Design the sequence.
């Protein structure tokens, strides 16, 4: 089955830019979606189809996808962005959903 | 605004069947290009997709759980349900229901329930 690999943790100072990667075999040929999960809460969709933002998600959140790596970029990081972030794709060959292992973003 | 709410027992004995229901409000479960899905998350771990259902009753399941999982839908009640049989401690997790957007060939989850903790213990 298709495997997505994320770094366990990323740390960034407030006001700086955080980049969270999601690796997968030829992931650039798939659409990647990103979720933010704060402690004790359900995940929230922050980017879909590689780079689109749902209504209400700040423009600071953006995404890109090429080759074997997709990236969620959070600009001008705020303390409130501290959370776990998960990438997700749909494995069309098996017709099933796949999540990355998640990345904990720490705001220093 | 679509809302989803999980309900069901918080404690299940080993070898028994876990049963959860997700009630959808703010919209019809039968409208649009939507599927309905279950996802779980063991404490301190990542998200695991369990399966999905369309209102026609068509289902897809995670191969790792397929032999034990049944997802069904009741459009008259605007609900869909999860049954997981022969549970063990490894099935202890927070279980989420979610709406799955069909943007073929991809799918993504746009609305989630708050989640419900199910503990498997005697």
Sequence:
């Amino acid at each position: 089955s298709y495997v997505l690999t994320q770094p366990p943790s990323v740390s960034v100072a407030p006001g700086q830019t955080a980049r969270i990667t999601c690796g997968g075999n030829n992931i650039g040929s798939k659409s990647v979606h990103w979720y933010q999960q704060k402690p004790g809460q359900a995940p929230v969709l922050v980017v879909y189809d590689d780079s689109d933002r749902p209504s209400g998600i700040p423009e600071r959140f953006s995404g890109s996808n090429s080759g074997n790596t997709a990236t969620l970029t959070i600009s001008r990081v705020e303390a409130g962005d501290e959370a776990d972030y998960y990438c997700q794709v749909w494995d069309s060959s098996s017709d099933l959903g796949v999540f990355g292992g998640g990345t904990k973003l720490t705001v220093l | 605004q679509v809302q989803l709410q999980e309900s069901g027992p918080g404690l299940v004995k080993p070898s028994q069947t876990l049963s959860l229901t997700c009630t959808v409000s703010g919209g019809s479960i039968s409208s649009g290009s939507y599927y309905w899905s279950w996802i779980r998350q063991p404490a301190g771990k990542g998200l695991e997709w369990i399966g999905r259902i369309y209102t026609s009753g068509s289902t897809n399941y995670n191969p790792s759980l397929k032999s034990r999982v049944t997802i069904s839908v009741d459009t008259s009640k605007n609900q869909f349900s999860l049954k997981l049989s022969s549970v063990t401690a490894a099935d202890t997790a927070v279980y989420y229901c979610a709406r799955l957007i069909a943007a073929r060939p991809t799918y993504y989850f746009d609305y989630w329930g708050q989640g419900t903790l199910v503990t498997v213990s005697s």
Remarks:
- The radius of gyration of chain A is 13 Å.
